[in-house]
Design goal:
By secondary structure, this protein is α/β, with parallel strands linked by helices. It is 28% helix and 27% strand. It is built from 11 helices and 19 strands. The strands form 3 sheets. A 9-stranded mixed beta sheet has the order 1-2-18-19-17-16-13-14-15, with helices on both faces. Strands 5-4-3-6-7-8-9-10 form an 8-stranded mixed beta sheet, covered by helices on one side. The N terminus is likely disordered.
């Protein structure tokens, strides 16, 4: 059974001239109701392969367009024909493509504009498109902060990064339109030192925001290249639905419980947890995310209630088992690969030592349901499922599943 609530529908299909070509919006040809049915039925079909009873599913679709405050793109420049002048404005315009992959292709579809981008992101993207990148192919991320700052992360090959630093003109143009430029897998910050471009240590600033149980915004420190949800509006919908399963009390009372969070990132779900429970252990592997999380907690005077552990939860370890001692609940938001080794650890615990509550957040239903089967064998029964359509017009969806042991 499916319950629709708090949905905003436009009367028309998504207005985009690239719908038939772009791989980003695979089901944009369907109206919003049909898209929801598609996602719900896909989830139920997967569920029925593992479980005999399909629970009631609530579903929320908060917005139709202009919600992306973070966008990942690809640059592609085919080989310039013999005789063409590589630095001519004509060549720059004709041969550089910036956009998303075409459907069923490894070619890039050059996108002039995207109706999913927020106004701030769209304006920023228009300016980024004017810049010539002297590389064959590479990835970039653009984002705007809640305060309107602009950031770009260039995830290029080392030889292309070297070329950029030597060529300089592209970086000069980027610094005119960006507050922060990050380069490479280590997200080094582009800085000018004595008139020369240098790559310096990453710097965390408030690129994103999460919310407390009253849905007041909380600034999240991170890098431009850090993982985050795609936009502020859709993330607020996710957090508000999360609170429905965490059951916060009135009058700002904090439950005297300890929870552990798996794959915390920069703290998008950590601080909502801290607004409900007295103590939280946050586990995360990425070093930059760990440091950003600690910085945000310090700024909010929450370090005394938050224990941050840099650990790979996908590999079984005694340390991970020790962290589960005395924990009342588990919140997991793993990558597409799921919980993996953590399930081995929790399976080794004595049943009476297992936490009573487990909340699983995932955008990949296949591994979510696979992991839920193992948790169900440990006595965890799903009692609430909520779909939050953070990715309208695509085949993807975010799911929150609340489980309990009795």
């Amino acid at each position: 059974m499916l319950k629709h609530f708090n949905m905003f529908f436009s009367d028309n299909f998504l207005k985009c001239k690239y719908i038939d070509q772009c791989s980003g919006c695979q089901i944009a040809h369907l109206d919003p109701t049909a898209q929801i049915d598609f996602k719900k039925n896909k989830f139920i079909d997967l569920w029925k392969k593992t479980f005999s009873v399909v629970p009631e599913i609530e579903f929320r679709r908060p917005i139709e367009a202009q919600f992306r405050d973070r966008v990942d793109l690809t640059i592609q420049r085919p080989t310039i024909p013999h005789g063409a002048i590589s630095n001519s404005s004509e060549c720059k315009q004709e041969y550089q493509k910036l956009g998303f992959y075409k459907k069923d292709s490894r070619d890039i579809l050059d996108i002039e504009s995207c109706p999913l981008m927020s106004k701030g992101t769209s304006d920023f993207y228009t300016e980024v498109r004017k810049i010539h990148f002297p590389i064959q192919k590479g990835s970039l991320r653009i984002r705007v902060s809640p305060a309107g700052k602009r950031g770009i992360w260039l995830d290029f090959a080392n030889e292309d990064i070297k070329k950029l630093l030597e060529e300089k003109n592209t970086l000069i143009e980027l610094t005119k339109i960006c507050d922060v430029v990050e380069i490479g897998q280590k997200r080094k910050k582009l800085s000018q030192v004595e008139g020369q471009f240098k790559l310096t240590d990453p710097e965390s600033i408030a690129w994103f925001e999460t919310y407390d149980k009253n849905l007041n915004p909380i600034e999240l420190k991170m890098n431009v290249g850090s993982f985050s949800q795609t936009g502020f509006k859709t993330n607020k919908a996710l957090i508000s639905e999360l609170f429905k399963v965490l059951n916060p009390t009135a009058h700002n009372q904090i439950h005297d419980q300890k929870w552990i969070e798996l794959c915390s990132g920069s703290g998008n779900l950590t601080f909502p947890l801290l607004s409900v429970f007295s103590n939280v252990i946050a586990t995360e592997l990425d070093e930059n995310a760990v440091e950003s999380l600690r910085t945000t907690a310090k700024n909010l005077n929450l370090s005394g209630r938050l224990q941050v552990e840099q650990i790979n939860i996908h590999k079984p370890s005694q340390k991970l088992e020790d962290l589960l001692s005395g924990v009342d609940g588990i919140l997991a938001d793993p990558p597409r690969s799921g919980l993996q080794g953590f399930l081995e650890v929790i399976s080794r615990l004595q049943k009476e030592k297992l936490p009573k509550k487990f909340v699983y957040v995932s955008c990949f239903a296949e591994t979510l349901i696979y992991d839920l089967k193992i948790l169900n064998d440990l006595g965890y029964n799903p009692n609430k499922i909520i779909g939050i359509d953070q990715f309208p017009h695509s085949t993807h969806c975010e799911w929150i599943v609340s489980l309990s042991r009795y």
